Amino acid sequence: MRLGPRRLLFRNTLGRFQSEEAKFLRAEKNVKELNLSVDLMKKESSKLLERATLAEKMDMKHGHEELLNTGGRIHHLAKSVYKVEAEAADLMDGLREIPGRDALKLRAEASRAFS
């Protein structure tokens, strides 16, 4: 920002007429304002950090619950697959015991289906 000649002259002369005490008080006031500003920024940053930490914990808890639910579903599916495999093995054993051409066709069809 460029200052005009009058303004520049006024600022320079006003500064010379001020006492050291007035300059010191103004500087002290500026320091206090800066300290307040820094304190507010520190408080705000700590609040933001707390919120971020809480959000992270909530996300982790939600993710953990999802993992547990997914694990339960996988376990349930594994039991179902095991049950179906056992039934298929029983069916194949039963088909092996039946003599005749029709039984051979059924066994071939079942073995293709289970492969």
TrEMBL record:
InterPro entries: RGS1-HXK1_interactor. This is Nuclear pore complex protein. It comes from Hibiscus syriacus (Rose of Sharon).
